[in-house]
Amino acid sequence: MLETLDRFGSSLWYWLALAMLGLTLEAAALYYQYALDYGPCVLCIHVRLWVLGFIVVGMLGAATRSIRALRVVLHLLTVIVTIGFLERSWQTLAVERRWLEGECSMDLGLPAWLAVERWLPSVFEAWEPCGYTPYIVLKITMAETLLGIGALVLVVALALTTAGLAGGRQRVSCADGTAAPPHALHAGARARRAAGVRSR
Fold it and tell me: Which of 38, 88, 92, 101 has its CA 20 to 30 A from that of 10?
């Protein structure tokens, strides 16, 4: 099972899918902003920044997926980005449902060297105070949808991180001569059987 997950986590399609997920979420946010006139709040902009993390990590993973150490690091980064994404999505939902009290300012609260609202205001400038996200489908709000997506991505990222770390330990054990991964044992058995057939 872990070997299958490790192969999946090293595939080009997985990393491209992660990047495409980020691009799709950003495109959907911009559609709601400019086509349907739902302006983003500060928390929405924070979510967009974490979504940008999916795009960056996905592209880096697609380029470096053959290097195990980097791949495991990127799986860990995916977990971190997803946790940040989930936290901001939950905050958005909590403000929307009035679970949290307090006002949301129009200041992003980012350091001066990360002035994304000045670099790309069409994407990262807050338009409205927090407290509402539009319905997506069947009375499910955007904040609820983001939480569901984030939970799914987190489960996948944790599974792939575990598989990547386990695969690395198997290779270290094999190099030390203490153990070999199951697929290597199966391959060796097949080779011995084929050699026996040829000798007969």
Answer: 88
d(CA 25, CA 53): 12
Task: Name 126's Cβ contacts closer than 8 Å, sequence gap at least 6.
Answer: 39, 40, 41, 42, 44, 45, 106, 108, 117
How does the average pLDDT of the chain come out, rounded?
A: 84
Residue 165 neighbours by CB distance under 10 Å: 16
- Rounded to 5°, the CA angle 28-60-54 comes to 30
Residues 6+ apart with CB under 8 A from 108: 42, 45, 46, 116, 117, 124, 126
Its pTM stands at: 0.80
